[in-house]
Design brief:
single chain, alpha/beta, Glycerol-3-phosphate (1)-acyltransferase, eight-stranded mixed β-sheet, two-stranded antiparallel ribbon, 15% strand
Length: 322
Amino acid sequence: MRESPRRLRRLAAGPMRLRGDGAAVDAGSEKWPFGIGDHHDHIVRRVRAIRRAVMALLWTLPAALVQAVLLVLPGRGNVVFARIYWAGFVRVLGLEVRVIGEPATGGGRPVVFVSNHSSWLDVPVLGGRLDACFIAKSEVSRWPVIGTIARMGRSVFVSRQRGATVSERDSMRGRIAAGDSLILFPEGTTSDGSRVMPFRSTFFAIAQGEHPPLIQPISVVYDRLAGLPTGRACRPLFAWYGDMDIASHYWRLVQHRGLRATVLLHTPLDPALFPDRKALSRAVWVAVADGAATLRQNRPAHPLSVPAQVPPSVGEPAPAYA
């Protein structure tokens, strides 16, 4: 049964409870006898959220000091520690991460990991599993705390303004030439988690050149809430999009238990096999969108291989909701 937009907004606005039949309801809609159980449940959720927020702060502050030192030292210690930090941050949030497939190593060749993007959670989820730097929009560098963490993770900031395209592309190619792998979100913004929006082919300009990196498509779906499969009604709890405030979104999310994200790592692609960046963009989109749809439908998932020749019509329309 399709949820009404009003009900979806209400579910996204506050903590949810799963009924015995697995349906998601907002916590205030089902009262316990005399309101006692409901009041107790509310207190437990708030205590859980406060505990996780404090633990996240206590984990971040010393980690920032360690990373500040590693950034001025030679070697890849800052890359390895960034992965350790994000993995620890995810555990503090109470979010389990399931990984299907293997990260591409490239045999010494850099890799650009290309993923769908529905939440700020994608950063710690992928950052804790991949030895790579993020490509982030320039606004992130100005965000309190988060901007500092992003810079310490050696993120590449892009403005996405037409006049800066060439210089930003060259900057990213320079990072790749130096041996860094990158994590790219080519949708250009976050979605509501119910679909993968079309990829912007301009992002794939970094995969062109004499020595292009490998491309590995990745599908990320938040598929468990309270240990049960999530449906469309539950996805606004995880998705962060539009004009949502990150602090309130974080507060609502960490009140819950049994959270899980699944990361599906597909077969890497060699950009040299594709005639242009639009063909490459379509092929990567096909793998990411199909993998995400499989995970949203709670069907068994496995890494997908996409042929170099993908029909031009594939990847242009927005995929169906699932």
